[in-house]
TrEMBL record, chains A, B:
The protein, known as: Glycoside hydrolase family 127 protein
Record field: transmembrane: none
Annotated ranges, domain Non-reducing end beta-L-arabinofuranosidase-like GH127 catalytic: 28-411
Coiled-coil ranges per UniProt: none
Domain Non-reducing end beta-L-arabinofuranosidase-like GH127 C-terminal: residue ranges: 517-632
Higher taxonomy: Bacteria, Bacillati, Actinomycetota, Actinomycetes, Micromonosporales
């Protein structure tokens, strides 16, 4: 079976609440002429092979071989290390679906290992299967057993959709059936401390049509919020268990858990026709964007509990902004986009993709940030794994790298959707799109170039068909032409819609003006008061120490201020195709005291200079050194 | 034996490196007419009894009775819960020395319990003495066994100095002797993950003259910094073990550990005549004040590891500023003051006392902050023990309350010192001072009133004698008169020195002008850019929600800005004798978006109002609500 006609991740059934539907896996192809296509290729040639290597090096596969009796090594890594295997499997599956090649043996071999390791009743968790059998299901708050089952299920769904292989699906269904038996209506009223199984079970339902999976996902969602998990280390808010999701007024607690829970809630809502639950998810996601999200789309302000902070608590230096939380936000946004068709969710997908997510991977694809701060200070102590000065090749909690791999391998599936009227393009990248009998060639160097050209290479039916093109919320000047003629059309819900009869050769050109933009934060964001950020198109920029001329290096990086009396200009660089040339003044603070009378004594004018800002997602690819997204604005002197 | 002629905490021997020496315990008496005296009385009548109650309620004493076979209850609380007992004992001892009354039975009973619980070889640690004997000394990174020994020793030294009782001293010496035997030059090269035993052993040496205690303290100090403790949870910097203290360029890691280590280093340095080590401690303490200290004197910017952050990383909302770190800073400053005579250390004692330390205790003396943020936001999640919205009566890790009790019970001993020429007054409070045959009556309502009157009630020898009065660094206008005549005398090293022949009835009046001050931070402190703080005298002020008129309450607290076009004025209040009446504008931010184009669209003028600021140390004594020390400055409109 060829899965190319099945959809990618998170594909609602025909009866679901849905404004838009995903396209089949093979509908969108991205080329390496565009940035997203290059990211996908880098993932295939570097990140995914690196993850597969690490599964060997770090002992994740050996953990499973302990279960099958093929190893007598000690268990290694986090107790949920199986999920690194599952996410890597999922990535391999999507990659096979995308390009056909390279990872089939890995997928088959590991699926066979999992089949062999699985208990007769369906249980599978290498941490608990050898010398901790008596502890199975005894510590659901932290054991991650259902979380792990969820990632197994997602890998199996991906393998089936992308390769047609049902081998892993059998393993996943046996585990899912065990969950239904053990924790279904006839079983114990428990939830896992880490949401994930909810969205996975809905996906499994979507693939199999087996209603108990959907019911179990819904049950898991409804059981949460009644303090069944106890206090744990950080209180019930940490795992969103202090009140039912429907009653929550804000996102709270562990950011990844919150986003995975929201994604599961949307999945359950659309498949069960629960408009109230969908509204809850929309409300909470919107609340997060309004009060608890970094300019990069990153979420989670606190290191201690990897959690959301209070409203407007968004310190750039201590931003946790975990890579997996950004991926979780992307997943939730995708589900809300499908459910509602609202462009704001695609806007958020774009923002977090180009910034909070993209910044986590090194240019070589083999090193990663787990936390993604928006500032690194001179004198930063990078000795902690949660605050490194540069990306690390792996982590003791290695959730992020394989999560990146599975997202990147499936990235093309998020670029466009369909509905009864036509096609919606959400993410712009060089490639091709096939939908409803139409074929489009997309040529663009987005996000560096502001022009996107879409050429109809094959037209579908004779009647009219609507091509909807997202105008990002950051864009103040979108120009659209068809076959060279400028089209005047108002954006609706963030989309420019061209409803017409198409013929092969028709050419649409969308130009999204991309001047360098200066961005301010709500004044309640105390941590960046008096500072602004720079952006162009969807890309947030930053100043990095490596770009300073030698006479401005050292601690003077801390004294740079934006000089608004001179214009920003665009430039080019080796690391980044487009830089922003930033006029700065080097603050001259003769008074070195930490606290001093106000107003301070007169200071000099500061030395004027111009330094390039680079895309935030490219920081920390050169010598380790300070960086900042938010730049103090020089006061009028 | 009456200990009134022995000194208080941290008393160098006559041969130590010392510019100043502590006065005998009975030399300074504070009256309840002054704030410090009232704090001491509140400690005696509320905090200390509360701590003693909690030792029963929480099971700390039961833990010890398990060892003596008088209880078969489970061990409760942190594994180092014995230290809560020791610090409470120390507080009781100082209090007995101060007023004679009330706690003798507690001291005697618990000392007897400890005697009974102690092993024959001197070991004493109720966590490890019953069912974890085989784990003794096996986990020095986290076991706190030597840390616990240190607090036992300090309690014993206090009991001897304050009450003359050697009962506890016997217990402490036996444990100290065990440490010397087991971990001395003939023993294992190990250090404890939490410094404390160093300063305690030096104090024990000071009291007993037994050289091996000093040698063991020095050895413990020198063994640290060679990564013997391993990585732990937060890496070797966490416990100051990544490099020898002498090589350290900045304070780092867990703030309490760092300060306790510095205090021990000063003690070792002055007793061994190690000027280089003393210089190291001065350098590191000064570095902390220059880059890593809150305006309140609090230290520690991070919740995750209770640690210092990077230089200038001083977020007011996420300030950890642990009470014990503030107390540790006070202890280190006291030792440096004695060693050097530099007023800057007394300045720091004053700052951290009136702000970082004082703010931790509720006005009723029975509730405490463990972390001491400088800002609490509207919508704050106070459900975590490390970020409560109001003070808690006790903590699962209860280190801070008894630490406050022992400091407050001995507070009078830090007010003044002597040297060969006379007396130095460092902390001003209503009371009396006896030194060198002179007696002084001190009358003042400091820090509310700017006048301090010192009257000689008994004169010592016939020759000249120097009365040195500290002029705090915050003071820009100090006026001094003797017997009504203004004296022109330049401050030297921060002290106004009156060298003259004194007679009974001589009257010195010092006036330290206390206008409301506006304080700015170094521009590298990104977290408070565009904001200022208010202070008067040594007291930092804050805006608190409870003081807002109803029409400005709710989330509008977040929108207050300081209106510098109108003057600050002083006022009075019920909670605070002196308030600062702060002209504000309520920012009118019609654009609610989290991020927006810069410059923002025009905003209104804001509503003008005047709200009282209260001393920071009095916050959170009314209804829970937001608070801020750093106030945004309204831009010119």
């Amino acid at each position: 079976m060829n899965g190319a006609h099945l959809p990618g991740p998170a594909a609602p059934t025909p009866s679901a609440l849905a404004a838009l539907h995903p396209l089949p896996l093979a509908a969108v192809r991205l080329t390496p002429d565009g940035l997203l296509g290059r990211w996908q290729d880098r993932n295939a040639t570097a990140t995914l092979p690196h993850c597969i290597d690490q599964l060997d090096v770090q002992g994740n596969l050996t953990n499973l071989r302990r279960v099958t009796g093929d190893s007598d090594a000690e268990y290694r890594n986090m107790w949920f290390a199986d999920t690194d295997v599952y996410k890597t499997l999922e990535a391999a599956a999507w990659e096979i679906g995308r390009t056909g090649g390279g990872f089939a043996e890995f997928l088959t071999d590991v699926a066979a290992l999992l089949e062999k390791a699985q208990d007769a009743d369906g249980y599978l968790d290498s941490y608990y299967q050898v010398d901790r059998r008596e502890q199975q299901w005894t510590d659901l708050g932290f054991s991650h057993e259902m979380y792990s089952a969820g990632h197994l299920i997602q890998a199996a769904v991906a393998a089936y959709r992308a390769t047609g292989s049902a081998q892993l699906l059998g393993v996943a269904r046996r585990f899912a059936d065990l969950l239904v038996t053990r924790f279904g209506p006839a079983g114990a009223d428990v939830v896992d401390g880490h949401p994930e199984v909810e969205t996975a079970l809905v996906e499994l339902y979507r693939l199999t049509g087996h209603e108990p999976y959907l019911a179990q996902a819904k049950r898991s969602l409804e059981l949460r919020g009644h303090r069944r998990l106890g206090e744990g280390r950080f209180g019930p808010r940490y795992w969103q268990d202090d009140q039912p999701l429907r009653d929550a007024r804000e996102v709270m607690g562990h950011a990844v858990r919150q986003q995975y829970l929201l994604a599961g809630a949307v999945d359950v809502a659309v498949e069960t026709g629960d408009a109230g639950l969908l509204a809850t998810a929309e409300r909470l996601f919107t609340e997060a964007l309004a009060h608890k999200t970094y300019l990069t789309g990153g979420q989670g302000s606190r290191h201690k509990d990897e959690g959301f902070g209070d409203p407007y608590e968004l310190p750039p230096d201590r931003a946790y902004a975990e890579t997996c939380a950004a991926i979780g936000s992307f997943h939730t946004a995708w589900r809300l986009l499908l459910a509602t068709g609202h462009a704001k969710y695609a806007d958020e997908m774009e923002r977090v993709l180009y910034n909070g997510i993209a910044g986590s991977t090194a240019v070589d694809g083999r090193a990663f940030f787990y936390s993604n701060p928006l500032q690194l200070r001179t004198g930063h102590d990078g000795s902690h794994e949660d605050t490194p000065s540069q990306r690390l090749s792996w982590y003791s909690c290695a959730c992020c790298p394989p999560n990146l791999a599975r997202l990147m391998a499936s990235l093309h599936t998020y670029a466009a959707t369909g509905d009864d009227d036509g096609l919606q393009v959400h993410l712009y990248a060089d490639g091709s799109i096939t939908a409803g009998g139409y074929q489009l060639a997309v040529r663009t160097d987005y996000p560096w170039d502001e022009r996107i050209t879409l050429t109809v290479t094959a037209a579908g039916g004779p009647g009219p068909w609507t091509l909807a093109l997202r105008v990002p919320s950051w864009c103040r000047d979108a120009r659209l032409s068809v076959n060279g003629s400028v089209v005047r059309t108002g954006a609706q819900e963030g989309y420019l819609r061209l409803n017409r009869t198409w013929k092969a050769g028709d050419r649409v050109e969308l130009t999204l003006a991309m001047p360098a933009r200066i961005v301010a934060a709500h004044p309640r964001v105390d941590a960046v008061r008096g500072s602004v950020a720079l952006a162009r198109g969807p890309v947030v920029y930053c100043l990095e120490h490596a770009d300073l001329p030698p006479h401005l290096s050292g601690t003077l990086f801390e004294d740079l201020e934006l000089d608004l009396s001179r214009p920003l200009e665009l430039g080019t660089g080796t690391l980044a195709p487009v830089t922003i040339r930033v006029p700065v003044l080097v603050r001259d603070d003769a008074d070195g005291s930490l606290y001093r009378p106000y107003p301070p004594s007169a200071v000099g004018d500061g030395r004027a200079a111009t330094v390039p800002a680079i895309p935030y997602f490219l920081w920390a690819n050169r010598a380790a050194g300070p960086m900042r997204v938010w730049i103090p604005v020089a006061a009028t002197r």
